[in-house]
Every structure is written in structure tokens, then in C-alpha cells.
Automatic annotation (TrEMBL):
Name recorded for this polypeptide: Solute carrier family 22 member 23
UniProt KW Hydrolase keyword: no
Domain Major facilitator superfamily (MFS) profile: 85-575
Primary gene name: SLC22A23
Source species of the chain: Anas platyrhynchos platyrhynchos
Matches recorded under CDD domains: MFS_SLC22A23
Length: 639
């Protein structure tokens, strides 16, 4: 065929099917051209809107074009949607902290066959005494219930101080040889959360946030209410796993929807309001348990409010940002008209021409992306891994500080009251979130995360090193130090460590949600939330091993804090920046200097806009990536 074309004097087509000099030729076929192969090739034009062609940059600029056209948060409907993402946070707070009541270790002693209460007359601590929080160690140094003589009992008598008359432990006598089943029951909810975050995150990127939210609500109602009907601890633990799985889908989809609804200047505060509402559930949980009195009633009361979320099928739409990023323009057009109608806006206010551009691209095929695509990137995978390690370290070392505050060996706790211990933990978490607001507002995401991680590392290293030194000097006869001095320092460092590590974990999750592109934001959130779940999982693991290896556990996480301090410097700054919509946008989210350049100072690295002046290749790449010329050092446009 090629030889025949050379004889006819026709040039060979190039690799992309075009013919050299075809631009100067008339659009019609040449005179005398038959129906040969060459004529057929010339007669086939390229499709006007192929899937490989670049999408309109205007449609990919959601924060700069689409969101202002819809009125931002000024629209009443958008504010209603944000409010609807806040309300379930209260129910989530109830579910997350229910283990402290359902699986609380009560005081217990043997009830003799004649109905008398053994040797305990109420003035002594019963031999099976355990701290009520489920987090801290035993409160006395009496022999444990593992002794065969103490566990040889026909009937146990319990005293539950968590506001309930009966819980899971007293229902099925999970003491002595069966005490390990309590830790397995605690594992089940956390492991369900971990797997739920990983799987529902990928599904949310593929089918959307709204279906994941609604199906998670349906199944948490099924599994959660069935938990209250459990007939043994095996059934309870299995159903709690599936309850945690569904709870993870609700948490992740609401977090993603909340982030994608907000303009850049309001994302952090709206997320923090949801955190405060979730903490309100933590503070109200003891009162709810005192009203319910029975663990089955408490479980049902915790789950039943999710029935209200079934209405979200009617009133809550899909994320418009996700629809635009995945190029589902037909559904996006319908949702835009729905939003403008509910906000009573006039489409003539579309100055930038979003709707006409949407009409041009409406025939484009959807383009969905899985989180595994991040492996082939240069910067994006690094940012996600760094934040996952930060989240794991923050939530993991938080348990170390909690154990140190209460004494990791069999010592007296700060208080003998379950509610005092519970509200101490909740109060520290609340103070941490309150401190995050001004710190992140002033220093930004990266600066705030770095500050809290430095505080965590200092508290950990001082607790491991300085307290051991104080302990050695306190043994000297002329030192003038007592063990009480060491305990006071330990308590102070533990409070600082819990305060800062909670901020590290929370801020890592939010930071990851901002720098992960919209097309894979569910998968990125799933990874960082699963890492946080692995950090929380260290608490029941240490309890199952009776706190063996506690010191090594703390040393490992202390080393991780030092590594995280270095890695945080590699992260970009996302404060007041547009959210990245696709993977190329996420790749342009590159690192900025920690301190801004002085006026007139030449930066060492050129920005993306400056590189365009030296190579024409960057112009075509920027157009294909949907990036406008007005970019910052992050490659994203500020508001």
C-alpha cells in the first residue's frame, strides 16, 4: 500500500493519522479521488470531543468559576446542606464512645451459695477491681482474678459505675478466664472502622458520596439494632464489626461532602464545628447511659437516630464538585439548575459562561479514577503517605500519654471516679480542638501540624528521658526528691502530650482531605482515617497483653514523631487554596517555603507560571491539565 501511494505522489500519513500539509488542503476530497484507501483515510475527521481531548479549564476550576456562580455559602440551599452534614456528627459521637460504657470493666466479687458476698464487706476493694474507663490500668496492686481460687465461683456479683445496671461484661460474665473476650469485642468495632474506611473510600470515588452515605445508613440500622439482640459475646463482636464498617462509610462520606461544599476560606471552621458537635456526643454519653440503665436499651437509643438520615435520600444531592471532576456533565447540569432554582438565582448572572461551556462538554464520557493511580505520581503519593504516618503516630502515642497519666503499672489513678476520668479525657480533646482554631488560622495547615508535632515529640522525649533521670536522683538519700515529684512531672507531660497528639491526628485527616484531588478524595480520606484507626487499635492490644512492652511501644512512637517532624516540611500549604480536582492538579500542589519570601527577594525555585516563559511544552501541558496562567507556587489559584 505504501509503495502504491509513493507512485501516486501522495505522502504517507503520520502516526496520529494526519497528513503533512493537510491544513493547507481544502476540506473536501481532491478531484478524481475514488473510494480507495487513501480517500477513506482523508475522509474520516477526528471526533470533535474525544475522551482524550482536554476538558474546558473553566469547568475544572470549581472554586474559581462554578462555586461563585452558585453563590458559595451565600446560597441558602448550600447552608442547609452544610447543616445537614453537622447533625449526624452527634450520633457519630455516641457510637464512637459507646465502648466505654458497653464494655466497661466493673468491680466484681463472688457471691457465695448461701447468698452472702464472700469476704468483701464494702469497705475493701474487691479482688477483681478494674478501672472503669476501659483505657487505664487496674487501680490496685491486689492479686488479679487470674488466680484459680478466685475464679472458682458459681455466681459473680458486679458493681458498674458507668451509669448502667447491666452491660456486656456482666451479662455474659466476661471476667477471669473470659476477660480476653472483652478486648476482642473492642477490636471488632475498630477493625470494622479500619476496613470500612478503606473500602467505602474507594467506592465513594467510583459511585459517588451520596450512595455510600445512604447505604451505610441503611446497614448501620440493620446491624446496630441487631447488636442489641445478641445472644452471646461472639454474636455481639461480629455484629459490632459490621456496625463499625457502616459507621466508617457515614463518617467518610460526610467528611468528603462537607469539604467539597465549602469555599477555601470556610473549610477549616466548618470542619471544626462538626468536630465540636461530635464531642458534644462524647460529653452527653454518660447522661444517656444513666437514663437508659441497660446496655441493650443504650445500644438501641444510639442507633435509632440514624433513622432520620433516611430522609437524606430525598433532600441531599450528590456532590457537584465530584460530578464535575469526573466529567459527568449531564448530571452536573441538572444539579446546577436544581441549585439555582432552590437559591432563587438567575442563570443570566453566569458571567464566566459556566452553563454554555457545560453544554459544549455534555457529550463527554465520565472519567473516574481509583486511588491506586496515585502510585504513579511524583508528589501526591508522598503527601498522602506522610499524612498517614502522622495520623498513625498522633493517635497511637495518644494512648501512651493516657497510660502514663494514670500510671502504666498498678498504681493509684488521679481520681477514683469513672466520670472524672472520662471527662478529663474529653476535656483535653476539647481544649485541643479549641487551640487548633487560632493556631491553624495564624500558621496555616503545615505550620500548625508542625507545631503540634514538635510539642508531642518534646512531651514524649521528656517523659521517657527526664523522668527516668528524676527517678534515679530520687533514690539518693540527699536528693530531697520523692516519687510524688516524678508523678507530677509525668502527669504534666502526659496532659501536654495528649493535648498535642489529638491535634496532630485531627489535623492530619483534614490536611489530607484538602490536598487529595476530588477524583480520589474518598480513597485518600480512607487511607488516612484507616491509619488513625490503626493508631487507636494499639490501646486494646496493650490491654490484651496486660501492658507488656508498654515502654518499647512508647519509644517506637517517640521515634516516629521525630521522623514526622522532618516529613512535615515536605508538605504543601493548602490554606486559602483551591481544592485540586484531578491528579495533575494534585501533582502541582508542590511544597512552598515555610516562611514567605521577603519583598524583592528572588526565590530559589521558579514557579510553574515562570517556567512557561522558558518552554512552550509547559503551555500545552497546562491547558491539558486545566490550569490557568494565574497560579501560585502551589500551582493552585487563590481565592
Amino acid at each position: 500500500m505504501a509503495i502504491e501511494r509513493r507512485r501516486e505522489g501522495r505522502p504517507l500519513p503520520e502516526e496520529n493519522g494526519s497528513v503533512p500539509g493537510a491544513a493547507a488542503a481544502p476540506p473536501g476530497p481532491p478531484p478524481g479521488a475514488g473510494l480507495g484507501v487513501g480517500a477513506e483515510i482523508q475522509a474520516v475527521p477526528p471526533p470533535p470531543s474525544s475522551s482524550s481531548a482536554a476538558c474546558s479549564p473553566l469547568l475544572l476550576d470549581y472554586d474559581g468559576s462554578v462555586l461563585p456562580f452558585l453563590g458559595g455559602l451565600g446560597g441558602g440551599y448550600q447552608r442547609t446542606l452544610v447543616l445537614l452534614t453537622w447533625v449526624p456528627a452527634l450520633f457519630i459521637g455516641f457510637s464512637k464512645f459507646s465502648d466505654s460504657f458497653l464494655l466497661d470493666q466493673p468491680d466484681f466479687w463472688c457471691r457465695q451459695a448461701d447468698g452472702q458476698q464472700g469476704d468483701w464487706n464494702g469497705s475493701l476493694v474487691p479482688p477483681g477491681h478494674a478501672n472503669r474507663s476501659g483505657i487505664f490500668p487496674t487501680a490496685t496492686a491486689l492479686p488479679g482474678p487470674g488466680n484459680a481460687s478466685e475464679c472458682d465461683c458459681h455466681e459473680w456479683h458486679y458493681r458498674i459505675r458507668a451509669g448502667l445496671v447491666q452491660n456486656v461484661v456482666s451479662k455474659w460474665d466476661l471476667v477471669c478466664d473470659s476477660a480476653w473476650k472483652v478486648h476482642i469485642a473492642k477490636f471488632s468495632l475498630l477493625v470494622g472502622l479500619i476496613f470500612g474506611h478503606l473500602i467505602t473510600g474507594c467506592i465513594a470515588d467510583w459511585v459517588g458520596r451520596r450512595p455510600v452515605l445512604l447505604f451505610s445508613v441503611i446497614f448501620i440500622l440493620v446491624f446496630g439494632l441487631t447488636v442489641a439482640l445478641s445472644v452471646n459475646v461472639t454474636m455481639f463482636s461480629t455484629l459490632r464489626f459490621f456496625e463499625g464498617f457502616c459507621l466508617a462509610g457515614i463518617v467518610l462520606s460526610l467528611y468528603a461532602l462537607r469539604i467539597e461544599l465549602c469555599p477555601p476560606g470556610h473549610r477549616f471552621m466548618i470542619t471544626m464545628v462538626a468536630s465540636f458537635i461530635e464531642m458534644a456526643g462524647q460529653f452527653l454519653m454518660p447522661g444517656l447511659a444513666a437514663l437508659c440503665r441497660d446496655w441493650q436499651v443504650l445500644q438501641a437509643v444510639i442507633i435509632c437516630p440514624f433513622l432520620l438520615m433516611l430522609l437524606y435520600w430525598v433532600i441531599f444531592p450528590e456532590s457537584l464538585r465530584w460530578l464535575m471532576a469526573t466529567q459527568q456533565f449531564e448530571a452536573s447540569k441538572e444539579l446546577i439548575f436544581q441549585l439555582t432554582c432552590k437559591n432563587r438565582m438567575n442563570t443570566e448572572s453566569d458571567i464566566k459562561g459556566v452553563v454554555p461551556e457545560l453544554e459544549k462538554e455534555i457529550a463527554r464520557r465520565p472519567k473516574k479514577v481509583c486511588i491506586v493511580k496515585v502510585v504513579g505520581t511524583r508528589n501526591l503519593w508522598k503527601n498522602i503517605v506522610v499524612l498517614c504516618v502522622n495520623s498513625l503516630t498522633g493517635y497511637g502515642i495518644h494512648h501512651c500519654f493516657a497510660k502514663s497519666m494514670m500510671g502504666h503499672e498498678a498504681k493509684m489513678t488521679i481520681t477514683h471516679n469513672f466520670y472524672a476520668d472520662y471527662y478529663t479525657m474529653a476535656g483535653i480533646a476539647l481544649a485541643s480542638c479549641l487551640a487548633m482554631c487560632p493556631v491553624v488560622g495564624f500558621l496555616g495547615r503545615r505550620g500548625g501540624l508542625l507545631l503540634f508535632m514538635i510539642l508531642t515529640a518534646l512531651a514524649s522525649l521528656l517523659q521517657l528521658g527526664l523522668l527516668n533521670l528524676i527517678g534515679k536522683y530520687s533514690q539518693l538519700p540527699d536528693s530531697g526528691m520523692s516519687d510524688s515529684v516524678k508523678d507530677k512531672f509525668s502527669t504534666a507531660f502526659s496532659i501536654v502530650g495528649m493535648f498535642s497528639s489529638h491535634a496532630v491526628g485531627s489535623l492530619s485527616v483534614f490536611f489530607c482531605a484538602e490536598i487529595t484531588p476530588t477524583v480520589i478524595r474518598g480513597g485518600g480520606l480512607g487511607l488516612v482515617l484507616a491509619s488513625a484507626g490503626f493508631g487507636r487499635l494499639t490501646a486494646p492490644i496493650m490491654e490484651l497483653h496486660n501492658q507488656k512492652g508498654y515502654f518499647l511501644h512508647h519509644v517506637i512512637f517517640a521515634c516516629c514523631t521525630l521522623i514526622c517532624i522532618i516529613c512535615i516540611l515536605l508538605l504543601p500549604e493548602s490554606k486559602n487554596q483551591n481544592l485540586p480536582e484531578n491528579i495533575p492538579d494534585g501533582e502541582h500542589y508542590t511544597r512552598q517555603p515555610l516562611l514567605p519570601h521577603k519583598k524583592g527577594e528572588q526565590p530559589l525555585l521558579l514557579t510553574n507560571s515562570e517556567l512557561k516563559d522558558y518552554s512552550g511544552l509547559h503551555d500545552s501541558a497546562a491547558v491539558s491539565d486545566g490550569i490557568s496562567e494565574n497560579t501560585t507556587a502551589n500551582g493552585m489559584k487563590p481565592m
